[in-house]
Structure formats: C-alpha cells, structure tokens
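Lecture 7 notes: from sequence to structure.

We start with a single chain of 148 residues. Read the sequence below before looking at the structure.
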Amino acid sequence: MEVILKKDVEHLGRKDDLVSVKPGYGRNYLVPQGFAVLVTPSLKKMHNETLKQRAHKNAKLKEEAESLVSKLQKSKLTIGTKVGEKGKIFGSIGTIQVAEAIEKAGFSIDRRDIKIKDEPIKQIGVYKADVRFHKEVTATVEFEVVGE
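Now the structure, written as tokens:
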C-alpha cells in the first residue's frame, strides 16, 4: 500500500515522501493519526507536480546545509556541567545539551536531528554526535564535556 506522508515519521520517511507500507500499518496507524494519506491516481499526479516545483528550492537548502556543516565542523563545541569526584557527571549529557551548545556557536539545530553515538554520557571527555542538517546532509560533530 502506498501513502504520502504528511509529517516526518522516524524510520519511515520525511514529509511529502511517497512510501510503501504494509496495509495494516497504513490504515490502522498512519492515516488515523494524521501522519499520511492514501495515494489515489489524481493525488499522485498532484504530488509529482509539487515535487518538481520544490526541487529547485530543495537544492538551495541542501547547498546552505553543506555550508553550515563546514562552518560547524570548524568550530569547537564545549558543554559545561557539574562534576563530582573522578570526572563523573551529575546526571548525563543528552541531545538537549548538545543542541544548546550548537546554538551558542551560532547555529540553529533541532534536538531531534541529533543522535549521540556514545549515549548516555556520564564522564568528562570528547564525544561525537551525528547531526542531520538536511534530508541528504548529515555530519559528525565533535564536542567536549568539561566540568564547571
């Protein structure tokens, strides 16, 4: 069964993607929750026309995302936190703190677009996170967790 996504659905696709799903998943979850609509021939034609119009805009956004990646990878990210004995952190560092550090560096990234490789972070050190800037542009960003 083919559906057009109305919202981003993790592990399935992003908004306006045409995806094939199992009939039960589509009818019982995606459509009732408002995440997708069933594909009809007329809807498919409209969708294809819309995608053609957005192709130019998407190329420009991708180019901007690639320039952001190069700028962000040059900057050094540090996250300050309270630390106990032996470098152990009170609590843990998550995507929210990484998003705040990226924002302090002058970039706007949604925390849901950040995936930390060594989660949960409970020690001082240098870590890496995958940041999705665009549908097709993902970069690995290095950040350091330091004690305050």
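The chain has a mean pLDDT of 88. Keep this in mind for problem set 3.
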